[in-house]
Design a protein that fits this description.
The chain is mostly helical. The chain contains 7 helices and no strands. Helix 1 packs antiparallel against helix 2, helix 1 packs antiparallel against helix 5 (116-151) and helix 2 runs antiparallel to helix 3.
Amino acid sequence: MIGLIVLIIVIALVITYIVMYNGLQRAKVNTDEAWSQIDVQLQRRNDLIPNLVETTKGYAKHERETLDEVVGLRNKIMQLPADAHQEKMEISNQLTDALKSIFALSENYPDLKASQEFSQLQEELTNTENKIAYSRQLFNSSAALYNQKLVTFPSNMVAHIHHMTKVNYLETPSAAKEAPKVSF
């Protein structure tokens, strides 16, 4: 009888261990998948940039420095290793700012602003930027769930046994946190 009770306890512990391990693995896979969604949107934006630069180049010949910056930042992102999450997001933030400069150029060039191709590219890039923001939010939510499992009992013991480590959140650049300066 005691042997049966011990066997039931051992089986219950093994099942509990497996459930916790699988929960940790699912949370990690969800975090990886969330990052891949960011990567997909970054690639989509990178694919749109050459068209935007070509469209803009014809109208805004004097704005070569801005266009070169956009192309340079795009190339930097594409050269980074897949696991360089924070570096990709830092350069991505710089690229977003540079793209805003290109969109602002359209105010100085009425023909560019009226160009249907430019308008379509601007809309596609704006939609992509929104998708990147949503994907970043999804990544941070997935990372929070995974990190929570790493530090809560009893899954933290399973995580420790398998040397699982915390996933860093994607942070908002400090410049984006500042209140915009408005003059009246």
